[in-house]
Amino acid sequence: MANSADLRWLAAAARLSARARPLSRPNPGVGAIIVRDGVVVSRGWTQGGGRPHAEAVALNGVDARGATMYVTLEPCAHVSARGPACADLVAASGLARVVIGCGDPDPRTAGEGIARIRSAGIAVEQVDCPFSRASLAGYLAQRTKGRPHVTLKLAMSLDGCIARANGESQWITGAEARAHTHAMRAQSDAILVGGGTLRADNPRLDVRLPGLEGQSPRRLVLTHGAAPDGWDALPSPEAIHGLRDDLYLFVEGGAGAAAAFLRAGLVDRLLLYRAPILIGGGRQGVGDYGLSALAQAHDRWHKTDQRQLGKDTLEIYEANPCLPALSPL
Ligand SMILES: NC(=O)c1ccc[n+]([C@@H]2O[C@H](COP(=O)([O-])OP(=O)(O)OC[C@H]3O[C@@H](n4cnc5c(N)ncnc54)[C@H](OP(=O)(O)O)[C@@H]3O)[C@@H](O)[C@H]2O)c1
């Protein structure tokens, strides 16, 4: 049975896996930690382009005999031209125990990775670890829904406005919140605004953080028309089902694009940056997304995190996956 120490190590492996994001795409960013007697022996995360995998990095050059490996995703069971199956590497490692945070829905691995490790006499425990699942959100969205994980970001005033009535929107939030947004961009595969925002602001949408300038994601515009140079057009929110190599999509508004994604039930996470200002009579952050009764708005979101960023507050909400979209496909 997994115990609380196991869950702490799995949480640490999930944090480690963030280093793989987004460079591992289209492979999942996985984290692995090898521990003996409470001491870290080795660790690894998925490398750029998806190989080597986290387990191969963690096992490389290490005497793992008798130790425990904590890994966020079930070790793969398929051989690739770019490397061996991790389940075989783990089976030959001499590890005493493997604790897995999330099963792999890839039919080439699902259950087979665990079976192969067990058949080598290694104890395997699969835990349904929320930290592991959260760290694999993009991969799981692609595997189970055939689309990237979608985060909608809104920078708003206390009265829910994203711009003045005349369109002026720079800046609502302060430097700390904007830096946080840039860090979120750097973890995304693609970033999107609506055609209205492109015409109003012509935003760069790049990452302006020291050391991460090279990590600016691809730019998409939601539009019925064509995209200018340097942008790709997305003709509808539903067209994200064609983005099969992207694990994480970051939607930065405006109100029309936000409403279109919400109406289609294609927002998994909300990032609300709230500045302590009142705009009054400004442009609302979210357009009409198809509510026909107030009751329909309830229970769609639950808060998972909240923090202060300078003068501003960041709130993070996750969508309730059990409720259908207001306007399903
Ligand atoms: N504070 C913030 O966080 C923030 C963030 C972003 C923007 N803003 C502000 O928001 C304002 C712009 O917001 P907005 O609501 O006018 O524009 P918007 O949401 O950026 O864009 C609306 C446009 O998106 C496209 N669109 C919407 N639904 C679609 C669908 N289902 N299929 C295909 N295309 C669709 C259409 O583009 P086409 O007309 O090209 O077909 C539509 O005109 C600006 O003032 C900007 O500064 C603020």
UniProtKB/TrEMBL annotation:
Domain CMP/dCMP-type deaminase per the UniProt entry, residue ranges: 4-125
Function description: Converts 2,5-diamino-6-(ribosylamino)-4(3h)-pyrimidinone 5'-phosphate into 5-amino-6-(ribosylamino)-2,4(1h,3h)-pyrimidinedione 5'-phosphate.
Its EC number(s): 3.5.4.26, 1.1.1.193
Underlying gene: ribD
Name of the protein: Riboflavin biosynthesis protein RibD
Pfam families found in the cross-reference section: dCMP_cyt_deam_1, RibD_C
InterPro entries on file: CMP_dCMP_dom (IPR002125), Cytidine_deaminase-like (IPR016193), DHFR-like_dom_sf (IPR024072), Eubact_RibD (IPR004794), RibDG_C (IPR002734), Riboflavin_Biosynth_HTPR (IPR050765)
Cofactor requirements of the protein: Zn(2+)
Pathway assignment: Cofactor biosynthesis; riboflavin biosynthesis; 5-amino-6-(D-ribitylamino)uracil from GTP: step 2/4; Cofactor biosynthesis; riboflavin biosynthesis; 5-amino-6-(D-ribitylamino)uracil from GTP: step 3/4
Record-linked PROSITE patterns: CYT_DCMP_DEAMINASES_2
Catalytic reaction list: 5-amino-6-(5-phospho-D-ribitylamino)uracil + NADP(+) = 5-amino-6-(5-phospho-D-ribosylamino)uracil + NADPH + H(+); 2,5-diamino-6-hydroxy-4-(5-phosphoribosylamino)-pyrimidine + H2O + H(+) = 5-amino-6-(5-phospho-D-ribosylamino)uracil + NH4(+)
Family per similarity comment: In the C-terminal section; belongs to the HTP reductase family.
Transmembrane segments: none
Keywords: Hydrolase, Metal-binding, Multifunctional enzyme, NADP, Oxidoreductase, Riboflavin biosynthesis, Zinc
Gene3D superfamilies reported in the protein's UniProt record: Cytidine Deaminase, domain 2 (3.40.140.10), Dihydrofolate Reductase, subunit A (3.40.430.10)
Note describing how the cofactor binds: Binds 1 zinc ion.
Molecular-function GO terms, alphabetical: 5-amino-6-(5-phosphoribosylamino)uracil reductase activity; diaminohydroxyphosphoribosylaminopyrimidine deaminase activity
